[in-house]
Amino acid sequence: MSSKIPFTKEFGYIRLSQILKPGSNKLNDIMDELEDIERVNSLTLKQWIESRLLSTSELARIERISNDRIYDIIKYCKFNNIRIITPEDAEYPVNLRYIENPPVCLYARGKSLDSTAPSIGIVGARKCTEFGSKAAYSLGAKLALAGFTVISGGAVGVDGMAHAGAMNVGGNTVVVLGCGLDSHYLMVQDSLRKKAEQYGTVISEFEPKTPATRYTFPIRNRIISALSCGVAVIEAGRKSGALITATYAMEQGKEIFAMPGNINEKQYGGTNDLLRDGATPLLEVNDIIQVYISRFPDKLKTGGEITPEVKRGYYEEAARLGASPKKSNNLNADIVKSESTPKNAQKTVAEKPQKKEPLSTDLSKMGCSENAKKIYLSFNENIEFSDVLSEKSGINGGEFIAAITELELFGFVKAVPVGRYEKIK
Questions:
Q1: DSSP state, 187?
Q2: Residue 253 burial by Cβ neighbours in a 10 Å radius (0-12, 13-18, 19+)
Q3: Which of 189, 274, 334, 363 is deepest in the core (most CB within 10 A)?
Q4: Distance of alpha carbon 386 from its chain centroid, rounded?
């Protein structure tokens, strides 16, 4: 070790992490055998060979490690507000300590991690439907209102919407990245990460500038499941990475919740398989709350309602992403609108479509945009699916979401289950 580098536990665990690499299952064996991180770092190559604790490739890494580079990582973290969390620190989550392959160290920004808080992982498709996107946002918000910390991976789609829902009601969230904290991967989510650093926590076991690869995400998923009391899966196909998280959760003895979907649509294949194999059906937020409320009676509550302002936050988030979610005709219970579903919803769906009524209000005088007027004039029936309105008006993606939100705010339309809008003026 270079003479200019004083030994610290941070130095020792970073060096060990470079020997083992993320996802290794050897940390516990090494610490049980050698007991002290300073002793671990004092071993010569010959002593490592004699210990038989490392593989050939791990032994080869020892000679390639640059102590100066480790020192640079520590300095970088210090000057960029990144905490280095080692297994010796109180902040290191207790529910990570005893899994088969705990991270050797974690890098974090934001609030301190609280291992005693009830928490739920929410995972699912990146290219989710509009239904899945809204469901993730609503579920994140309602779980946060109930007292849960919402944990996910920070990607677009289900992950990001779950984080946004939690933060928009003032709840706590933990973003577990599959890259370094200062990687340039997926910068479209940079504002969400920064908000999470302010109101929640962003963590990674990868060094700060580590890029994302196809291998880093499956490794990361075991941390999402380990930090969570249970994992909720929304819109996962049979090849979805969300199923990796669910598998880890099952291996770790966690409860799995899955939102049912149309058996003829590929994006629900994985979640429906989970249900067939014994996962708890997720039809409303209380399906989760009731499982844990007796375990955390002083920390959880029921009955939190999403305000109109929080609902509008969904559209703002979707518009920020410029999202054009894949549409869905899924007719399952709508978690997003469950608090405002009209009592006569079933009757309304069955009614004979009414003829188009003349436009009775000058939308221009109300300040509505041209896009909003086009969408309003696209109603041929009193209730239309959002994808039908988008197709008729020629407006889609973030522009459609922004315009339909205008009409909602001015009271010209209202959202009704599932993925539809009703003209009310």
A1: G
A2: exposed
A3: 274
A4: 25
What is the average pLDDT across 236-243? 90
Sheet holding 413-416, edge to edge: 383-385, 420-423, 413-416
Q: Is 27 exposed, middle or buried (0-12, 13-18, 19+ CB in 10 A)?
A: buried
Where does residue 62 rank: exposed (0-12), middle (13-18), buried (19+ CB within 10 A)? middle
**Residue range 31-47, pLDDT digits in tens:** 999 989 999 999 999 99
Contact call for residues 183 and 212 (beta carbons, < 8 A): yes
Rounded to 5 degrees, φ, ψ at 203 are: -135, 160
Amino acid (one-letter) located at 339 = E
104 close to 20: Cβ distance less than 8 angstroms: yes
CB 88 within 8 A of CB 29: no
Sort strands 420-423 and 383-385 into parallel, antiparallel or unpaired. antiparallel
| Alpha-helical segments (H) within 67-129 | 67-79, 94-97
**Residue 370 DSSP class:** H
> Strand 106-110 to strand 201-204: parallel, antiparallel, or no bridges (unpaired)?
antiparallel
User: Which amino acid would we find at residue 317?
Assistant: E
State how far the alpha carbon of 377 is from the alpha carbons of 252, 319, 360, in Å: 53, 22, 11
State phi, psi for 210 to the nearest 5 degrees. Answer: -65, 125
pLDDT tens for 294-323 read 999 999 998 777 888 888 888 877 777 765
Place of tokens 């007719």: 331
C-alpha–C-alpha distance, residues 57 and 60, integer Å: 5
Burial degree of 59 (CB within 10 A; 0-12, 13-18, 19+)? middle
**Which residue reads 């559209």 in tokens?**
315
Q: Which two three-digit tokens encode residue 281?
A: 């059906």
| 138 CA to centre of own chain | 13
Residue 276: is it exposed, middle or buried by C-beta count within 10 angstroms (0-12/13-18/19+)?
Answer: exposed
For range 151-179, the mean pLDDT: 93
Q: Is the dihedral of CA 406, 410, 413, 418 positive or negative?
A: positive
